[in-house]
Task: structure prediction
Amino acid sequence: MRSQGILEKYASWIKLPDHAIPLSLNEGDTPLIPVPKLAKGLGGGFALYVKFEGANPTGSFKDRGMVAAVSEAVGSGATTLICASTGNTAASAAAYAARAGVKAVVLIPEGKVARGKLAAAAIYGAKIIQIDGSFDDALTLVREVATKLPVALVNSVNPYRLEGQKTAAFELCDELGRAPDLVCIPVGNAGNITAYHKGFVEYDAKKKTGVPTWIGVQAEGAAPLVLGKIVAKPETVATAIRIGNPARGKEALEVIAATKGKMLAASDAEILDAQKLLASEGIWVEPASAAPLAGLMKDIKAGCNLNGKTVVLVCTGNGLKDPDIVSLPDPVKVRPLFEEIRGLL
Ligand code: AN7
Result:
């Protein structure tokens, strides 16, 4: 079958105004990878999958929401898009702006944005502005700018972002035949968990596919929804979710409550261990995207019962975006001779 983007594939499910324009980089349709070895290592008795959102065109799940938001914004006449970003939103906004022939302006927090994300925003032609503050400061600022200047805000406070992002839930139901029992997801600004839940609820209403329980995972140094208070100076190696005041935090907690789920915090060490564990199955994700596995492992340690269940880890971003986090071994150097190689194997 011809490859389609999500706006075409799920046209009857995505609510966009009539002025929305056709737009696609063939986002979505990402692999759902079974990881039985990993499940066995965690005690077994359940089916475990990775939804590898790093396979999207700009390497993260953001493309699903961005294609919808940009389609609407450009159709409404916008010629400049703006967003605050820890990196992936910036890369995605920049790509879809380029695709639609409009300008993108991205505000990033000082330091700590992964190199691959900045490189993406740059090559797609975005104007990159670093602010002397956190992601949360940047988001507050772009919200103000969007009310005062003729620019379209494409952060996940834009409702069309959720319309696009919810399609990942549709794909899970289409592929598994029903919703998973448990879904583990990283939580930063809390747009994605909100969108997925919306998707599952809408599919269930028409197709009786069920609604999963959630484990939302934040990084310990940036865990406002676990602590129950804003974190003024969020810090974590998982820079994508270095967010202290999530815009959709209240909605995320409602999703957790409605599905009898949990919001957990994982330490940087646990996140990096989980990243290595996923890599040992051949799946390289960025640190934020390893947080779901770190959270699941915590919950298993705490005695949760997964017997017979289908569990999905939402791995939101590609490891290639953040290569600097991986420490490289010193290469073994030899002369180009067979004997030297034989001696090493
Ligand atoms: C890989 O790019 O907020 O809870 O500005 O890049 O919907 O915010 C990124 C977030 C998880 C958290 N995994 O999703 C941004 C930004 C990855 C991410 C999240 C992000 P939300």
User: Anything to note?
Assistant: The domain at 6-59+160-325 is CATH 3.40.50.1100 (Rossmann fold).
